[in-house]
């Protein structure tokens, strides 16, 4: 089996972790969990030269210097750093990488802002998936659910096609609570974690079949691209004209030969402050504290400061996040509403976005 080329997607904005994650420095460029940034942790996860080639990284052009510096700090120089002039979701971003790679290359597509705590399980799942991808399957890694989660899409497993691998019967949208509980009880559904393995040429074949306009725009953007060392700047006009579409909608849902490899690997997309509370160890009072924090007679709170001291007295079930410029306060369980704050910030307050 030839070595796998990681494709690290680092173009997201991570607004649900505002005010720490901002447009100028989104969550993947920050040490949300531990001392490494999430981008660095992702790059280190695929650093084994026996299994992986140097990665292709797709990132926002505004973050080019920071991405390069962070990767250099963990000795993870990419073979190509593709710098999007504008975000167009994952289907065009992956097409950039697939066109840059050899058609036969096995691409492991990874979001740069996910946590994987059990890396041995992840490596075993890749070993299961790689032969299928080499045979032309488009493989997605299904996260074995441990709760009735309404915030993720699901994949229904079909027949087993190899030990530990199944045909993907269908993708389903984020469910309501009752449906999520039914999926969990059924045992045949996995969370859609957004991690994929396939040959570059196979992805492009399916994109040409189901979203040819996207492929045409991306090809045009690369034909007019500018190269500076390993940096690749797609032509802004045709790339901006590409339809914004996720890989799930553009390719995985309508395509044939889709496989799912279920895996329990301590995965989280760290998609909200509530999610962070769930994965970081708490103290005896149930508080998760990061930075300069003083909690008195307070319990079950997430208290994080990247700047000033947070002093909490007699409070419960709160999320308080402070930076040098902004402070977020909301009840635990309501952190999906952070997006409302980002949406509500006017142009006059754009510096806080």
**Element-by-element helix/strand order:** EHEHEHEEHEEEHEHHEEHHEEHEEEEEEH
Q: Look at the structure and name the CATH superfamily of the largest domain.
A: Spore Coat Polysaccharide Biosynthesis Protein SpsA, Chain A
Number of helices: 11
Segments where pLDDT lies below 50 for 5+ residues? none
Counting structural domains, the number is 2
CATH hierarchy class name of the largest domain: Alpha Beta
- Portion in helices: 25-40%
Tell me the total number of β-strands: 19
Under CATH, the topology of the largest domain can be stated as: Spore Coat Polysaccharide Biosynthesis Protein SpsA, Chain A
- Major sheet size, sense and barrel closure: 5 strands, mixed, barrel
Question: How far apart, in Å, are the first and last alpha carbons?
Answer: 45 Å
Class derived from helix and strand content: alpha/beta
Radius of gyration: 21 Å
Could you characterize the architecture of this molecule?
- With 353 residues, this protein is of the alpha/beta class.
- It folds into two domains: 5-268, Alpha-Beta Complex (Spore Coat Polysaccharide Biosynthesis Protein SpsA, Chain A), CATH 3.90.550; 273-352, no CATH class.
- The chain is built from eleven helices and 19 strands.
- It has a five-stranded mixed beta barrel.
- α2 links the parallel β2 and β3 (80-84).
- α6 packs across α7 (212-223).
- It is globular.
- The mean pLDDT is 95.
């Amino acid at each position: 089996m030839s070595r796998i080329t990681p494709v690290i997607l680092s173009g997201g904005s991570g607004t649900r972790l505002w005010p720490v994650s901002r447009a100028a420095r989104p969550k993947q460029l920050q040490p949300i969990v531990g001392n490494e940034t999430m981008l660095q942790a992702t790059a280190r996860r695929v650093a084994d030269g026996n299994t992986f080639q140097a990665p292709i990284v797709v990132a926002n052009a505004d973050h080019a210097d920071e991405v390069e510096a962070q990767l250099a700090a963990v000795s993870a120089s990419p073979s190509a750093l593709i710098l999007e002039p504008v975000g167009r979701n994952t289907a065009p971003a992956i097409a950039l990488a697939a066109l840059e790679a050899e058609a036969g290359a096995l691409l492991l597509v990874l979001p740069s802002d996910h946590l994987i705590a059990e890396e041995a399980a992840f490596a075993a799942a890749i070993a299961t998936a790689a032969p299928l991808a080499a045979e032309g399957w488009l493989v997605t890694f299904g996260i074995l659910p441990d709760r009735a989660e309404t915030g993720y899409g699901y994949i229904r497993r079909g027949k087993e096609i190899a030990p530990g691998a199944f045909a993907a019967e269908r993708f389903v949208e984020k469910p309501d609570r009752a449906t999520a509980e039914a999926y969990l009880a059924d045992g045949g559904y996995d969370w859609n974690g957004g991690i994929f393995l396939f040959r570059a040429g196979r992805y492009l074949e399916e994109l040409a079949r189901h979203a040819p306009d996207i492929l045409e725009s991306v090809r045009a953007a690369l034909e007019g691209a500018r190269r500076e060392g390993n940096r690749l700047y797609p032509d802004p006009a045709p790339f901006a004209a590409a339809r914004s579409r996720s890989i799930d909608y553009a390719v995985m849902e309508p395509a044939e030969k889709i496989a799912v490899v279920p895996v329990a690997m301590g995965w989280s997309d760290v998609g909200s402050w509530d999610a962070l509370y769930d994965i970081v160890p708490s103290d005896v009072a149930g508080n998760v504290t990061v930075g300069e924090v003083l909690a008195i007679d307070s319990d079950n709170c997430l208290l994080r400061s990247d700047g000033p001291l947070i002093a909490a007295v007699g409070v419960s079930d709160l999320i308080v996040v402070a930076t040098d410029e902004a402070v977020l306060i909301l009840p635990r369980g309501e952190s999906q509403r952070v997006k409302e704050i980002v949406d509500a910030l006017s142009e006059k307050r754009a510096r806080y976005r």
